Structures are given as C-alpha cells and as structure tokens.
Amino acid sequence: MQQVIVTGVGNGIGAAVARKCVAQGATVIGCDIDGPAIERLAREFPRDSFFGEVVDVGDLGALRRFFGRCTERFDCLDGLVNNAGLYHGKSVYKYSDDEIDRIIAVNLTALIHLSKDFAAHVQQTGKRAAIVNLTSVAGEVGSSDALYGSTKAAVIGLTKSNAMNFAPYLRVNAVSPALIRETAIYHRIPQYRLEEYQRQETLKEPILPEGVADVVMFLLSDASRHLTGKIVPVDNGAYPR
Which residues fall in a coiled-coil region (predicted)? Predict the structure, then answer.
C-alpha cells in the first residue's frame, strides 16, 4: 500500500483512514466538499504524505478531473476508498426531486465512475490493487431514510459485481458499519432509530470512526489478499446475518 485515494476525507471515517494510511507510510490523495476540514487535516501530516482537494463527487466532471490529477501525480495507484456519502435522515415523502438526484449521484453514481476509472488505470499498470467501499447496515436491513438505504444496498451489489469484473487485478470489498459515533450522520439519525441500533448491539463499546478505519486498512492490505466481493460488518454484533 503506497498511494491511496480516499473520498470524503475531511471528517469521520475518511479522516481516520487517512491518518492510518499515513501512519503506515502511505501517501493519501483525498477529496472532500469541505475545504476547511481538508486544510485542518493536512496540517497533521508530513509534507508530501497527503494531498487534499475540494471536490464535489456528485459532480461527475469534477470527479473525473480529480482522478485525472491523481494519475498525473502518481504513475501507480494502490488503493481506493469510496467513503463520501450523504444521509438526510428523513422520510422518502420529504425528499425533493433534486435531493433524490443528488443522493444517488453522491452515494452511488460517483462510486460507479471512480471505481471503473481506477480499475482501468490499474489494469494498464499490471499491478494489483484494492477498492474498499463504505456501505451501511442500512443497505442490508433497510433504513427509515429510504433513499439512503436503497443507495447503500446498491453499493453492496456494486461491490460484488465489480469484484467479478475487476478480477484478477483488483480486489473489491465493502465495510458495512452500524451506529458510528462522532460522525455527521450520527447527529441526523432519528432518536427512535438510535435507540433501536443501541438495543441490537451485543458489544457495548461505542463504534468510532477509528474502529471502522481499522477494518478498511485490513481490506486494503495484503493480509486480506484472499478476500474479494465481501461485505464486512462493523456493527457490535447487531443484526446477525
């Protein structure tokens, strides 16, 4: 693991992954819509270990230009973490048409295009690489936010299908967290859903972004070299499946 792209790098899981990558000697190329968060994160790292850009992954043109700059900067890329996502925590009846289009663009369409372009680049180099997608327990058991749940279910299908399509050069796996504290999403979850998540957990140590990042790092690493097309839950034992 040498050069890793991380979307949604500014906060939460993305920032935790970036910190762990840099700590292990990797270079992170990150993007986020939150410019100040990228600037704060960049100040934590040694020079030339982190390159952050303000990019709206829901804007396909901007996303493609970002990836073009990644390949210009580095001949070989070793990992892609598709972490950027939107969650509104509201009823499907309250979504506007524009909000529906936006959440699909960020949570699914961006992953389709960035994964495809990343895979094509890796196959040209002849190297091996790994993609890790962030899905959610909501994609497995449903969500009170139907748009979020359906896009995260689609990420599960995309992970399995891309694992077939991108082999043998790339491994493609996903991490499926449940209730993660210290994230923007946590504060948007309706109270009754928070209580349901907590009731289902059999392990009681709160899940933090760093705990999810540990699993992402495993899936990026050679230690998971025999895994592809897998959905790894990080859920404190909730929703056994």
Answer: none
